[in-house]
Every structure is written in structure tokens, then in C-alpha cells.
Amino acid sequence: MTEAVGQRLAAALAPLASLLALLVLWEAGVRWFEVDSFLLPPPSAIGAALLDSAGPLWDNSLYTLRTFAAGFGLSICVALPLAVLVTASRWLAAAIYPLLVLIQSIPKVALAPILIVAMGTSEAPRVVITFLVAFFPLVIATATGLLHTPPELLRLARSLRASALQRLLYIRLPHAVPFIFSGLKMSATLSVIGVVVAEFVAADRGLGYLMTSAMAFFNTPLAYAAMLLLSLISIAAFHGIGLLQALLFPWSTGQPNAAG
């Protein structure tokens, strides 16, 4: 028991020690080579910007989180049923899949100004851009999971006269859970990128907007502080989805003690 706790503690402290060493080297390197703060601010300057601009950073973070939640939530609502349709029949797959690839192939940075002209400068185009960035990986991951179901189980279910809906709910979806959550993790991190792309193009609030405004006035520490918060949002979303999977579907995490 003590050895297991020690191993977990060491595993938790190792990345923290690496991060601390990186920050120390960063701080020392900037000061030793006398790099101007507007080119590369030291961690101390970024920390000071976090404290000095806590109010604006908090307000813009909430705005970015709202757009992230709307776009990511919309991607879940569309991607999961779409993946079921794609895997329901070969005809539907042939009809829908090329359209998905076409949408995914469009550069979202180029699409953002077009959407803003078409939909106005409201929050709607930013949500749509976030959705477009996030939904494709979730569709592919979910479809892969649904198609990964062992065929012998499906044959057994048919022999027991299980309906298509029953096979989907009780066999295919449970086997697809690990794939779905992998897609959710990927889509969550991409959603943050989508929000920033949209806020770069046209926004009057948000962390992406704050970064462009800060760089326009060469306030690089504030831009780094906003970028740090964006990274924290992405990391929190990634690990939050992993925690949700461990709580709701512990058997799908692949951990040795998941069954216990």
C-alpha cells in the first residue's frame, strides 16, 4: 500500500518538477540574455500580468468559456447521431461521408470571415466555427467505435431476435464508449482552438480578442497570460472528460482496477 502511494506521488510530482525546472530556466535565460519583455516576457512578468489584469482576464475567460461550451455542446448533439447514421447503412455512409470530408477540408480561418459577413458580428458565427472545428473528429471516433463491435455479438443478438435499436443501445454503443470519449477529448481541445480562431477574426470580447488587443499595444505579458488561460481551459476540458468517463464508465478506461 505504501509503495503504491509512493509511486502515485512520484508520478504526480514528476511533471510538476519538470514544469518548475522549465520555468526557472526560462526566467534565468530571459534575464541572463537581457531579452526585451515585449519579445519574450519572463514567467514573473506573466504572473504579474495575471494579477494586475485579473478582472479583464476573468471577464474575457467567461466569454470564451460560453462560446466554447456552446460550440462543443452543439458538436456533441450533431456528431453522435450523425455517426449512428453513417454506420447504419452503406448507402447513408456513401451519401454523408464525402460531405463530411468536404466540410472538414475547408480551412476554418478562411471560412470565419465569410460566416461573419453572412451571420453578422454576434456570437453565432463564433459558435458555428467552434462547432465546425470540433465535430468531425467526434464523428469519426464514434463511427469507428460503432463499427468496432465484435461481429459474433451482433450475430448472437440477431439470433435472439434483438431489434436494431436494441443492438445499438445494448451492444454497439457500450463497445464504442472508449472511442466516443477519445473523440470527445480531441474535440474539446479543438473547440478551444476554434474559439480562438473566431475571436481573432471578429470579436469584441474573449481571450483571443484580448491577445490581439494586447499585442497591438506590445503588452506581450498580458498576451501570454491570456494564452496560459486558454491552455488551462483546454487541459481542464480534456481531464474533465477523462474524469467523467472514469466515473460513468470505469470499465472503459482500461485501468487494472476499473472493475473495482
Automatic annotation (TrEMBL):
Sequence intervals crossing the membrane: 12-33, 68-88, 95-121, 127-148, 169-202, 222-244
Any GO BP: transmembrane transport
CDD domains named among the record's database cross-references: TM_PBP2
Cell compartments where the protein resides: Cell membrane
N-terminal signal peptide: none
InterPro entries on file: MetI-like, MetI-like_sf
Keywords tagged on the record: Cell membrane, Membrane, Transmembrane, Transmembrane helix, Transport
Recorded GO CC terms: plasma membrane
Pfam families: BPD_transp_1
PROSITE patterns xref list: ABC_TM1
Gene3D superfamilies on file: MetI-like
Domain of life, source organism: Bacteria
Membrane topology term: Multi-pass membrane protein
Domain ABC transmembrane type-1: 61-241
SUPFAM superfamilies, alphabetized: MetI-like
Keyword Ribosomal protein: no
UniProt family annotation: Belongs to the binding-protein-dependent transport system permease family.
Protein name (record): ABC transporter permease
Organism: Mangrovimicrobium sediminis
